[in-house]
Amino acid sequence: MEDLFKAPLFNLHDLVVISTAIATAVMLVMQALTPTKNTTARHYLTIFFICLLLHAIATLLMWNTHIELSSQAADLSVLVIITLSSLLKGPALFLYVCALTRTHFKHKKQHLMHLGAPFFIIGLILALGISLDQAKGLESSHNQRLLHYAWLLMKGIPALYALACIPVAISASTIMQSYYSNDYALGKNWLSMLCIGYAGYWSWEFFSQLFGYALVTVWQLIHSIDHLGIANNYLAFILLLVLFSYNISVTQQQLARAVNATKKATLPASEPSNALPAKTTHAHKALNDLAQSIQNLTLQQKPYLQSNITAEQFAHLLGRSAREVSVVLNQHFEQNFFEFINTHRVNEAKTLLASPKHATTPISDILSMAGFNSQSAFQRFFKRITHMSPSEYRQQYGPTKTPSS
Description:
- By secondary structure, this protein is mainly α.
- It has 16 helices and no strands.
């Protein structure tokens, strides 16, 4: 018993890995509780966090000297788990970003190609009979160079996937910022942090694997290659801690909005309008009056046709403050300013696309005439509202077609 206390089961570095696993597990629970309409994206994010969780557990079992695996099958299981979790986390992140940013994203057969590398490496391990100790470098192997390349793939492939996510996330962030609500603004920041954070971390892991030997023996910048692995564990923990803290903020705000929406939906049944105090009734009338003014201005002057119209300029046309207009747009129309403006722009574009006068007008001109100044924003917002592209809409409802009721 005394020896156990002298040699604890987990040292500080192990506790960091355990903390990473616990934080990942909590993130999984939080994702399950967070309201979302995009279940496909949630599934991929769940797979991503499961990969991170399994990787942390397998890392602990692989490198902790006090944990002895009971059999060769257990050794092989750990090796397979760490290989699969390493090679599947990249595709899971990439498909999560695609599902989150692409309209009407669907599973396709070509997505199965992402499973190629994981199963190729697993097949190689099984075919060559590589043991866990050989993979760790504790035992010599005739396939040492092949093992080195396999580890490079396991570190490099996730980094490539994460780097591929960055331009998608950035372009999507620009569009989301133009016409989505405040919650989506939080979401776009989460997406950018997730992609850039893991791109940097996984690139460092690949660098460590590629130049680790040179850093120790040639350049002598570090005393042991084990220090790089320990540093990787700490980086993983810090990154997950940042994402965990930010995700708490996002989840709290989303849950608060969901609760407020539920209260708002149940209010008329429990509190009749004639029971409201005079002050509340007056405020409600003022809100309705401003909402009517917004509707009249929008229909008569069509300020949405100005491609550079801002919330402040729109409010100035009404003779009100931008804050007042924003409150009414959110409470009465259930849209923020950009959603409201772009919805009217899409309606204008629908009219133009169905007009015989503009039967041959290029769609690039139609979007400008409707007030859009970005083709990507026009395409995405148009499809979000009509569930079809502008060209498909023109084909269905153009001058030779009659729109269905």
